[in-house]
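Incident log, support desk, overnight shift.

02:14 A customer reports that sequence design results differ from what the structure should imply. Their input is reproduced verbatim below. On-call engineer (initials T.W.) acknowledged and began investigating.
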């Protein structure tokens, strides 16, 4: 039982932050801000006085350098940073030159917003340069430096770019081998979480709806980190490995098997809970006990629990292989795996309104203009906050539902963050030795949670601003109320424009994601019909996995608690069906072998393809279908002997569940296991 209590902090961290990517990004941003601030402070103390704008630009561009620069390779990152720095210097100069002409300055700001947003059509570099330009003009208009101060002001962006590059390439560099190792450790940690839950259920002997939901969540978390780990394994240019002798191919197969074995253990445990002793033996890696159970599987081959035991024994084996790969990676750094060739494929640039990025640029500009107008009515000096909010709520969103969710998150994060910040600023007023470390901690936490919760990030940033206002002596209740008001204006403007101008319907984004998922499933079934096998089928099943993740992201706004026009229960049901079908596609890809001449495999494939064609043309309608619970009972599923056939049947059964015609389905004998994944 000792493994149950062997969770260390690092294991917990890896289980919640695969590859420690969030920790690294937060550390980069925080360290860069601290170093830039100290360097600028030293310059001000020992070389020449610096205006406040230099500090503001240095800090803000430290954030953008850590978050917005996403190029692969340090050389490309440096080029992007230098272009971003040049853009920053230009727009700050424009802001300073137009300071006496406020109306013209505001109109130029809108032009810069349009250009910065449209720059995203050029890819990651265009996105980063646009963010540098927008935030720099924002800070230039906010701090209002004079033309005479420009040489000193420009020191801030230059120091920020140089320090940010050093931090990312020297102190906290990218390393795909290290990230691969950490992601594999995260996979191992999440498999352990599944085993611990199965052990608890095996001991109780009962699985209720809450347990099913928790196991599905654990399964989704495992899928998330497996997909991440797969991105770190270098692949041939064609995307498919030539043979299992390749060290990268061997590792990919071990990862695939561990994922499939864990999911199979969950699915079959829903059908028949496993004996506690088996789960315990797998957790403890008790070879003698596992060997004993292997000897009993033949006698129980026609019993549901026998198949569950087989799945757990397979999970124990794949877990052991995965542990061996992790240990080998720790010892050798995966030296036997060659790095992927760093190639860039030129993408055509589309400046037509058919490009959603360009439509988004027009939305952002219009929302910023509306926010600017209403923000000016509230305050001539602080309207920038409204524009900032309207600009940022469109970042990394794909539909109007996404934008509305982000606007709500920003508003709530600002309100609660200011409330907490006011309390903290009051408690530590006049104690900079306490306030400064608290600011650094809050900055770290803000960017650690950025990828998880935008509201949490906004919450901590609002606390930082309150503490900074307190240390500079400008903190007042009226100022904080103004901050909240301007943020609400910007969030409302962004949401309104997202729903009225070039609206990207949430269901439209979901329709596109579903079309890709159905097409990936078609390709897998088509490849099987053509007689393909091995790595080709596995690669196609991994594509289905990736498409399923896109479906869950696109469907998220539909199931949000703030939405009054959707039924979250039906959304979860539909997602569970797609999850089930994705799982059975992996079973099919891994266990497929050429069938005998008298097999009905072709008819099963044809039936599945017909179901796909029928469901695909209906798009996202399946997410709003009311489904009755089936009254059928489950059968024994011989995955260890007939995995390919069962996979084909269960894909059909799952697809039937999208638009059920009656309580009893055509695949009634096997439908219970599909339902088990749906709860």
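02:41 Re-run completed on a clean worker. Output:
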């Amino acid at each position: 039982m000792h493994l149950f209590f062997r969770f260390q902090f690092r294991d917990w961290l890896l289980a919640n932050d695969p590859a420690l990517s969030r920790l690294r990004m937060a550390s980069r941003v925080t360290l860069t801000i601290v170093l830039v601030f100290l360097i600028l402070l030293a310059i001000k103390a020992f070389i020449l006085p610096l205006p406040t704008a230099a500090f503001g630009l240095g800090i803000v561009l430290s954030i953008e350098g850590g978050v917005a620069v996403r190029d692969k390779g340090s050389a490309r990152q440096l080029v992007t940073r230098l272009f971003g720095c040049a853009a920053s210097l230009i727009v700050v100069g424009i802001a300073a030159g137009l300071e006496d002409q406020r109306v013209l300055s505001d109109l130029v700001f809108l032009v810069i917003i349009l250009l910065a947003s449209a720059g995203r059509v050029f890819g990651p570099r265009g996105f980063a340069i646009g963010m540098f330009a927008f935030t720099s003009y924002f800070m230039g208009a906010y701090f209002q430096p004079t033309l005479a101060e420009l040489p000193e002001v420009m020191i801030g962006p230059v120091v920020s770019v140089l320090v940010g590059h050093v931090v990312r390439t020297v102190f906290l560099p990218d390393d795909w081998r290290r990230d691969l190792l950490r992601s594999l450790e995260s996979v191992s940690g999440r498999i352990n979480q599944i085993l611990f839950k199965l052990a608890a259920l095996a001991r109780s002997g009962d699985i209720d709806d809450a347990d099913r939901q928790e196991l599905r969540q654990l399964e989704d978390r495992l899928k998330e980190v497996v997909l991440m780990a797969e991105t770190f394994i270098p692949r041939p240019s064609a995307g498919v490995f030539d043979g299992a002798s390749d060290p990268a191919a061997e590792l990919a197969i071990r990862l695939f098997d561990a994922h499939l074995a864990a999911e199979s253990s969950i699915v079959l445990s829903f059908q028949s809970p496993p004996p506690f002793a088996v789960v315990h033996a797998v957790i403890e890696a008790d070879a003698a006990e596992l060997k004993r159970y292997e000897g009993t599987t033949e006698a129980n081959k026609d019993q549901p629990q026998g198949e569950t035991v087989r799945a757990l024994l397979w999970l124990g084996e794949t877990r052991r292989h995965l542990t061996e790969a992790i240990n080998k990676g720790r010892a050798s750094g995966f030296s036997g795996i060659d790095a992927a060739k760093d190639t860039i494929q030129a993408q055509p640039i589309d400046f037509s309104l058919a490009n959603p990025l360009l439509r988004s640029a027009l939305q952002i500009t219009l929302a910023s203009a509306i926010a600017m107008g209403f923000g000016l009515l509230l305050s001539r000096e602080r309207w920038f906050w409204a524009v900032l909010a309207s600009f940022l709520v469109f970042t990394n969103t794909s539909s109007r539902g996404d934008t509305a969710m982000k606007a709500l998150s920003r508003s709530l994060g600002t309100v609660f963050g200011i409330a907490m910040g006011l309390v903290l600023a009051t408690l530590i007023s006049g104690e900079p030795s306490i306030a400064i470390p608290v600011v650094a901690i809050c900055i770290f936490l803000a960017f650690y949670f950025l990828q998880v919760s935008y509201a949490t990030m906004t919450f901590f940033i609002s606390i930082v601003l309150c503490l900074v206002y307190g240390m500079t002596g400008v903190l007042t209740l009226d100022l904080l109320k103004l901050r909240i008001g301007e943020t609400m204006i910007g969030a409302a403007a962004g949401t309104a424009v997202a729903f009225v101008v070039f609206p990207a319907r949430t269901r439209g984004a979901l329709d596109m994601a579903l079309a890709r998922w159905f097409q990936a499933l078609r390709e897998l079934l088509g490849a099987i019909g053509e007689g393909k096998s091995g790595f080709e089928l596995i690669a196609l099943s991994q594509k289905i996995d990736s498409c399923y993740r896109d479906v869950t992201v696109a469907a998220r706004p539909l199931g949000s608690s703030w939405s009054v026009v959707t039924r979250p229960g039906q959304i979860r049901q539909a997602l569970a069906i797609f999850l089930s079908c994705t799982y059975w596609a992996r079973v099919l890809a891994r266990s497929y072998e050429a069938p005998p001449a008298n097999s009905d495999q072709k008819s099963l494939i044809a039936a599945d393809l017909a179901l796909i064609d029928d469901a695909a043309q209906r798009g996202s309608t399946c997410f709003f279908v009311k489904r009755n619970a089936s009254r059928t009972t489950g059968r024994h599923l011989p995955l260890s002997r007939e995995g390919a056939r069962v996979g084909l049947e269960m894909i059909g059964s799952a697809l039937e569940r999208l638009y059920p015609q009656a309580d009893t389905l055509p695949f009634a004998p096997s439908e219970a296991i599909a339902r088990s994944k749906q709860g």
